[in-house]
């Protein structure tokens, strides 16, 4: 097993030494079998949360009602969750209440897809009750048990199926897909933030285009904001490692619906700012980027706008690599690098603080960026007094 898991193995050993069982479960096992470096390692155990807390000296109750204790003893945090089932689903959502159980089987059974329902012992032995290894080999997303039942328990799983298919470039098994098509309207019961979280992961997938197609094929797109099906072909070459790029792309393709997208998915202010910057950069790119566009936008914003323009078959008369080169060669990289600030302007003019300061500094930035004025205090002072006052 991977050395990255040393800390998780030590957690498992301590739980075992206390007389309980513990295994690695879920996404970590899946990613291990796929040879992908996953993000976090989850441990499941038959010990109750109170028992787990007695074994370790430093723990945090991050979801005690769901049976999850965060163990900090081994340097890296490990989530340790008590084996549980989730009965009494209501409103097509995952229940708040869980029932702790003492056997691993039941815990694996409640998991959504066969590829996510495997466990691994500390020696690397795989426990696979539902054919998850076979499905990994064939690249298949398949519900554990009866797909219809599982989606009616928790409708978010429908979108998770699509997210995993995009993330891993897997196909959705026929019965599983049929069940989604049949009950797609249940997605309306799911909180939009949770939908947005799945889409954020979808954007970073290996096959985003396949995911967008699956959204249309499953009819889930009917219940989401954004014209997924109509814009399907535009996603063909889409690839990113940053979820905000996906959101920006969705907004660029649905420009009349931007506010609705912001509201429906409850996007963060950070994402919204990024999206607005990309939109502005895209619009000005269709004319021509000024040096200020390069200065005010970060590289990801500019590259996203550029990629979108290329995807839209706009004729852009320069290579993408130019963007980085131009940006790196700017005379100043940020406002902080300007040799003067607002206090200088006040001192030179004896005027009261006001909006005129920003006007003056912006002009100075443009002058320095264009190389009209050298970026030192004395030169800028002469230039400023000459440009903005009559005394100069
Ligand atoms: P990722 O790499 O995106 O974190 P993951 O498989 O770890 O993938 P999580 O959402 O972190 O996904 O969930 C961890 C595990 O919990 C899953 O592998 C799955 O076994 C189980 N799980 C998560 N959400 C659900 C759900 N809605 N229904 C059933 N099981 C779920
Ligand atoms: Mg995870």
TrEMBL record:
Q: Which InterPro entries match?
A: Bact_CCA-adding_enz_type3_sf, CCA-adding_enz_C, NT_sf, PolA_pol_head_dom, PolyA_RNA-bd
GO terms assigned for molecular function? CCA tRNA nucleotidyltransferase activity; metal ion binding; nucleotide binding; tRNA binding
One annotated GO biological process: tRNA processing
Q: Which residues form the Poly A polymerase head domain?
A: 23-142
Q: Which cofactor does it need?
A: Mg(2+)
Q: Where is the tRNA nucleotidyltransferase/poly(A) polymerase RNA and SrmB- binding domain?
A: 169-224
* Residues in the signal sequence: none
Question: What domain of life?
Answer: Bacteria
What keywords are assigned to this protein? Magnesium, Metal-binding, Nucleotide-binding, Nucleotidyltransferase, RNA-binding, Transferase, tRNA processing
Q: Which residues cross the membrane?
A: none
EC assignment: the record states 2.7.7.72
PANTHER family for this protein: CCA TRNA NUCLEOTIDYLTRANSFERASE 1, MITOCHONDRIAL
Family label: Belongs to the tRNA nucleotidyltransferase/poly(A) polymerase family.
**Name the UniProt record assigns to this protein:** CCA tRNA nucleotidyltransferase
């Amino acid at each position: 097993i991977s050395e990255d898991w040393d800390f998780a193995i030590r957690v498992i050993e301590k739980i075992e030494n206390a007389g309980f069982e513990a295994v690695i479960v879920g996404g970590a096992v899946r990613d291990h079998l796929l040879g992908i470096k996953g993000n976090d390692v989850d441990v499941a155990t038959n010990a109750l949360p109170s028992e787990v807390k007695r074994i370790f000296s430093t723990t945090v109750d991050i979801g005690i009602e769901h049976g999850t204790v965060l163990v900090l003893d081994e340097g890296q945090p490990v989530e340790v969750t008590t084996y549980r089932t989730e009965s009494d689903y209501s409103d097509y959502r995952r229940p708040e209440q869980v029932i702790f159980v003492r056997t691993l089987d039941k815990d694996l059974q409640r998991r959504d897809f066969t590829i996510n329902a495997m466990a691994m012992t500390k020696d690397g032995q795989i426990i696979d009750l539902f054919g998850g290894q076979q499905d990994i080999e064939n690249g298949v997303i398949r519900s554990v048990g009866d797909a219809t039942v599982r989606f009616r328990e928790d409708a978010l799983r429908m979108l998770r199926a699509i997210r995993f298919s995009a993330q891993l470039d897997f196909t959705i098994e026929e019965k599983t897909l049929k069940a989604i098509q049949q009950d797609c309207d249940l997605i309306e019961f799911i909180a939009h933030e949770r939908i947005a979280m799945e889409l954020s992961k979808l954007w970073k997938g290996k096959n985003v285009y396949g995911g967008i197609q699956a959204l249309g094929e499953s009819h889930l797109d009917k219940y989401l904001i954004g014209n997924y099906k109509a814009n399907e072909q535009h996603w063909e070459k889409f690839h990113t490692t940053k979820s905000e790029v996906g959101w920006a792309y969705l907004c660029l393709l649905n420009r009349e619906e931007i506010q609705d997208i912001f509201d429906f998915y409850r996007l963060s202010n950070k994402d919204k700012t990024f999206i607005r910057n990309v939109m502005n950069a895209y619009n000005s790119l269709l004319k021509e980027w000024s040096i200020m566009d390069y200065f005010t936008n970060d590289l990801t914003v500019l590259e996203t706008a550029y990629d979108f323009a290329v995807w839209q078959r706009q004729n852009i008369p320069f290579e993408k690599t130019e963007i980085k080169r131009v940006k790196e060669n700017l005379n100043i990289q940020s406002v902080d690098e300007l040799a003067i600030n607002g206090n200088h302007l006040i001192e030179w003019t004896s005027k009261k603080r006001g909006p005129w300061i920003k006007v003056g500094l912006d002009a100075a930035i443009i002058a320095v960026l264009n190389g009209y004025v050298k970026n030192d205090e004395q030169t800028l002072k002469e230039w400023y007094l000459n440009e903005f006052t009559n005394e100069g």
